[in-house]
Write a structure and sequence with these properties.
78% of the residues lie in helices and 0% in strands. By secondary structure, it is an all-alpha fold. It has one domain: MFS general substrate transporter like domains (Growth Hormone, Chain: A, Up-down Bundle).
């Protein structure tokens, strides 16, 4: 079941972004960011739906908290049905289908390679913050795990707000300007998590990285797609491959935190943020 969920989700993410680029002729980054906002709502509501089902506040039909699964299944099937009856003119494919080797060769294009690394850094900071923020509160403030668990919720709250407001800001200002603002917020967050020793400063740092990191994926992804319009499908697949940064960063952060404490884990994330600053000149809009 988990394998099917993972494979299906990957296929959907890989195909959806090029599909959106066919429909949206304007600001692609803003549209992708709004999609991230809707995705964040689903993630945010999942535990509450499960809780209501377990408490009997919702008709659970004997499923209890598991009522979450048929609810999301129905929503997914409805989305697939609506999409299947929606006419979307797609570019006619010519020549033979691209192989995995052909797709990987696209990494030879500087913008594709740099975008791939950018996606890795974004996901690494995203997953890294989720795992490290509670540990920082426990280490610096002496909190229990239950007390520190709110750090993850705080991150997701500001990430959700960032996706919603980002879809607006990306329509009224240049993507490069907003990207600089976002990465600068992430840099301030890293500084706060380096030196913060009180609740207010650490909460502010978590909120900053949540908001700042919320729009990086959409901006980097859209730049990669627009840079090689004739190979959107292949580029999209490569960008989704970059999600494995969520595996690499936590591994390195674990080694660093074992060596010098949670400040070491923050240092690993700071390297990813520093890289995103180098990507600024690649944002063309």
């Amino acid at each position: 079941t988990f394998s099917l969920l993972g494979i299906g989700n990957t296929l959907m993410q890989t195909s959806l972004n090029p599909l959106v680029s066919l429909v949206i002729k304007g600001n692609l980054a803003a549209t992708l960011t709004f999609g991230q906002f809707v995705k964040a709502i689903a993630s945010f509501l999942a535990p509450y739906i499960a809780m209501w089902g377990a408490m009997g506040a919702l008709p659970s039909f004997g499923y209890g908290w598991r009522v979450l699964f048929p609810i999301y299944m129905i929503i997914g099937m409805a989305a697939a049905a609506f999409l299947s009856v929606t006419s979307i003119p797609e570019d006619e494919e010519t020549g033979k289908a691209s192989s995995l080797a052909d797709s990987v060769k696209l990494l030879g294009k500087p913008i594709v390679l740099l975008s791939f690394i950018g996606i890795m850094c974004h996901v690494g900071v995203d997953v890294g913050t989720n795992t490290t923020a509670p540990k920082i509160l426990m280490e610096r403030l002496g909190w229990t795990l239950n007390d520190a668990a709110f750090a993850t919720s705080l991150y997701f709250i500001f990430r959700t707000v960032g996706c919603l407001t980002g879809s607006f800001f990306l329509r009224v200002m240049k993507a490069r300007t907003f990207f600089i603002i976002s990465v600068s917020m992430m840099a301030l967050s890293m500084l706060g998590m380096f030196v913060g020793t009180n609740q207010t400063l650490l909460y502010a740092a978590i909120a900053l990285v949540g908001y700042g990191n919320s729009n990086v994926f959409s901006i980097v992804f859209s730049q990669a797609l627009l840079s090689v319009p004739e190979s959107k499908n292949e580029v999209s697949g490569l960008m989704i491959m970059g999600l494995f940064g969520g595996t690499v960063f936590p591994l390195l952060m674990g080694f660093a935190s074992d060596a010098v404490g949670q400040v070491g884990a923050v240092a690993v994330m700071a390297v990813g943020v520093a890289y995103l600053f180098t990507y600024v000149n690649k944002v063309k809009q």
